[in-house]
Design goal:
Shape: elongated
CATH topology of the largest domain: BirA Bifunctional Protein, domain 2
Structural class: alpha+beta
Number of helices: 20
Length: about 450
């Protein structure tokens, strides 16, 4: 007996209804991207390993899916690493490519590779799948789509302001209220690390701090101690864990904590500029909130950091995020090109809209008319009408086989097709069509123009 087929954990099949709902989100985001002046690009699903490795921190590197070299890959394997069962050293000799972890690093590679073909500042958007060898759970998958928008070639903070507006525009279009856009600044985190005497452990500090929502304050402190950050330094962090109030009052408290750090003060200036601009421009759906514990443990962020939280009634992780990176292209030999970008988490946004029942009823545009197939002559007559209906924007189709009428009607019911058309000898002779409304059961014999008007 054949084994029942399956799919890998963390991946999914999508039925027609789900695809229609996903496309609704895609189209909403894509429309907003283009309204804000972003241009589309696409990059390969896999990159050279050297392009990806070392760009996301130690934890990120572990989540990158490696692709085995084609052919007999073991013939070129590092024999010493193979004998020692050293997977890290062995991987480099048997895998030269990897599935992309996100869209930002491939974008940086794209900018450097095509530097002579693009005009800076360059605003791009990209909607493609990414892969992470993560532990699957609700809202977290191993294969998922990212919807990214980035600007490279400008250090202007007006870009950050526009990205906040972009988030607000998309969530307004999706009718998703109660969204919170959290913001912090990497310079502030660097300043805090400097003040507590952990300037040389910035990555360890930010990676631990970024887990605050997941593992809690005490576990974060334990991890920092384990990474060599002193107890005295951790004690100095205490005011951060209890920081509260509106944006302005938190900024004031931060300014006092970071009074001895010029770098930290620069971060405060940038956040103040962004907040003042947003306060003046206003948001319609989302709310901007300062979160000084927000770290987003990716090495390449250098300025503002964003993370978007769903409405409180939905228990799910972030539904978007991003930030400023001053020299991401430098890793590919093109230094001093500043960039900033954000990402929408399509799959989590889908789950939120589903839970809150926010998908419009019209999102699943089904076939509206099914023509019953009574035979070759009737089918040909029906297809002429179907051609006209389709030209009028009506989704119509012919049942392919001259099966029993009960079977064809059952098919229409199961697919929730609202109208069925019957064409027999009498209809052909009178050049009419019998239109049946599947909900009410009413039917009438009508000419084609009335059929079109009734269905539309």
């Amino acid at each position: 007996m054949a084994q029942k087929p399956g799919i890998p954990k963390g991946t999914r099949d999508f039925n027609p209804e789900q695809v229609a709902k996903r496309n609704y989100i895609f189209n909403t985001i894509r429309g907003a991207f283009e309204t804000f002046g972003f241009q589309p690009i696409e990059t390969p699903s896999f990159e050279n390993s050297g392009t990806l490795m070392g760009k996301y921190g130690e934890e990120g590197d572990r989540l990158i899916f490696k692709i085995l070299n084609s052919g007999d890959y073991l013939t070129k394997a590092n024999s010493e690493a193979y004998e020692a069962k050293d997977s890290n050293k062995l991987t480099g000799s048997i895998s030269e490519k990897a599935l992309r972890y996100d869209l930002t690093v491939p974008f940086a590679r794209y900018v450097v590779q095509h530097r002579n073909d693009i005009e800076l500042p360059f605003k791009r958007y990209q909607i493609q799948p990414v892969w992470r060898a993560d532990r699957p759970q609700k809202g977290r998958f191993r294969e998922f789509y990212q919807c990214d928008a980035d600007v490279v070639g400008s250090k202007s903070l007006w870009q950050e302001v526009e990205f906040i507006q972009l988030y607000d525009t998309v969530f307004r279009a999706l009718k998703l209220e109660g969204v919170t856009i959290k913001i912090n600044n990497r310079k502030i985190l660097s300043g805090i690390a400097e003040v507590i005497g952990a300037g040389d452990k910035l990555i360890d500090f930010t990676v631990a701090l970024d887990k605050l929502d997941k593992i809690g304050e005490e576990k974060v402190k334990e991890e920092m101690l384990g990474k060599g950050i002193s107890q005295e330094g951790i004690d100095k962090l205490q005011p951060l864990f209890s920081l509260s109030g509106d944006f302005e009052s938190q900024i004031e408290s931060l300014s006092n904590i970071l009074s001895s750090s010029d770098y930290g003060q620069k971060g405060i200036e940038e956040l103040t500029f962004i907040n003042n601009a947003i306060s003046e421009l206003g948001l319609t759906t989302a709310a901007l909130q300062l979160d000084v514990t927000l770290a987003r443990g990716l090495n390449y962020y250098t300025g503002a950091i964003f993370e978007v939280s769903a409405p409180k009634e939905v228990k799910i992780g972030s539904i978007g995020g991003g930030g400023r990176y001053d020299d991401l292209t430098g890793i590919f030999g093109m230094p001093n090109v500043s960039g900033v970008g954000i990402s929408f988490g399509l799959d989590r946004i889908y789950l939120v809209l589903e839970e809150l029942n926010l998908f419009p009823e019209t999102v699943n545009k089904n076939v509206e008319v099914l023509f019953i197939n009574f035979g070759e002559k009737e089918a040909l007559f029906s297809l002429k009408a179907i051609k006209t209906l389709r030209q009028e924007g009506v989704n119509a189709e012919l049942y392919p086989d001259p099966a029993k009428m009960k079977k064809q009607m059952t098919h229409a019911n199961r697919r929730n097709i609202p109208f069925v058309v019957l064409v027999g000898e009498e209809e052909i002779n009178s050049n009419t069509y019998t239109l049946k409304h599947m909900v009410s059961g009413e039917q009438q014999k009508v000419p084609l123009e009335v059929l079109i008007a009734s269905v539309k």
